[in-house]
Amino acid sequence: MLTRRPVAYMLHFMAGPTPVRLAVRTKLLALAVALWAPLAVASCGSRTGLFVLEEVPAPADAAPPADAADAAPDVAPDVSADAGVDSFEAPDVSFDALPPIDAFFPPDVQIDNCPDAGGTLIYVLTAENQIFSFYPPTLVFTLVGTVDCPTSATPWSMAVDRTGVAYSVFADGNLFQLDTATAACVPTTFVPGQMGFLTFGMGFVADTNDTGETLFVAEDSFSGGTKQLSAGLGSIDTTSFALRFVGPFNPAAAGPELTGTADGRLFGFYTNAAGSGSHIIEIDKNTGNLLADNALQVGGPDDGYAFAFWGGDFWVFTFSGGPTQITEFDPATQTETPMGTMVEGVVGAGVSTCAPQ
Fold it and tell me: pTM to 2 decimals?
């Protein structure tokens, strides 16, 4: 049974920025529920209230949206909902060839539809279906509410757009809209398993040629309890809910979580599929090619994880059946710092492209 948590959480600070164990995430909690359950956010969200979600009509049947075929690429990845990603072959490219992430983020990026960008928060979603806001300068988590979506599966990942609407995929592949002001949940017409993407990491990125933003997704799956290499990068149209395949990751990556910036850059975080180690990567959103890589020392071999960009730094949330470790990575100094823990197990994080650069 879920229990109600206090409205605000203060972090328990650690003695100093000592290195922590090298990490590999498996999302075992979400996987277990996905196997047994029936198949069936971050925002410009300031401290002011956001809109209340209106119900999205359910599709008449399980068929994809009418324009899904038009949105599909000419060449699809060699995966299916049944096959998973076992047949995916990683390109023969080494991380040694990738430079570290460029730490320059232009401070003067202006987005007209960000009325309260200075108050933008990171939002996190826990394995217990609770949404919290997180304000990096004060390291305070505040409970928004408990999500009650029409599924017995657990949350898998989350992203949040500029208006405060969170999108969360659950372990059964269903995609829901979550209100970051009230935690209200509304089903979408997204059809699970499109292009072989049943579960995935996700994040919004500002468009390069207009004032909009795009929801990008990274396929993330398990086989026999082992995390597989991702089939690649895609995007979801949040009007038609059709998924478009962009391309395979090159070099290969194992189920990255995604976050984006106001200047149109896409980043991912993942732990290695076997052994130890984790990475923050920059991804070409037009091709899926990896542009840069930084190795981190954070987490443990059974960790779930989430990831967001705020104020020029990356915020990584890792857990393994206990409190969530919060780690700040500064790409300018190439350093990571443990910032404390929160009580809940964070499985998703989202931050608006309106967030400070």
Answer: 0.74
